[in-house]
Design brief:
Elements lengths: L1 H23 L10 H30 L8 E6 L2 E8 L2 H12 L6 E8 L7
Parallel strand pairs: 2-3
Antiparallel strand pairs: 1-2
Length: 123
């Protein structure tokens, strides 16, 4: 029984060692180690930062309008495309929020998924 466990452990160690060796190898020339890895790691971060910044700009623009309760509105940004979700208190605010979002520099498109919030107890 112990020999089977020892064999399994040995096989596991070999698999891990092989995986680490294969993982650490790259197809880059020796003169530029890690150059493409660094470029690849900064590009997505820049995209995420830009998306977050645009999301904040849109949300701030909506918040400046005192007639709209921005606390129930969600803003998602991806490469200039904005998606609005959540609820507003009046049907006229659905289009107004979309127009505000379209007016923010950097916004290329707006998908409006806002709905009108029904009052509690009212039908």
């Amino acid at each position: 029984m112990k020999s089977i466990q020892a064999f399994r452990l040995a096989v596991g160690v070999v698999v891990v060692a092989t995986s680490l060796t294969a993982w650490s190898q790259t197809s880059e020339p020796a003169s530029a180690p890690g150059a493409s890895a660094m470029a690849a790691s900064t590009a997505p971060a820049t995209g995420r930062k830009a998306n977050r910044a645009l999301r904040r700009q849109v949300y701030n623009a909506i918040s400046k309008n005192k007639d709209i309760n921005a606390g129930n509105i969600g803003v998602t940004a991806k490469d200039g495309a904005i998606t609005l979700t959540g609820t507003v208190t009046d049907a006229s605010q659905v289009g107004r929020v979309a127009e505000i979002a379209k007016g923010v520099p950097g916004v290329t498109s707006v998908t409006n998924k806002l709905t009108v919030q029904k009052p509690l107890g009212g039908m």
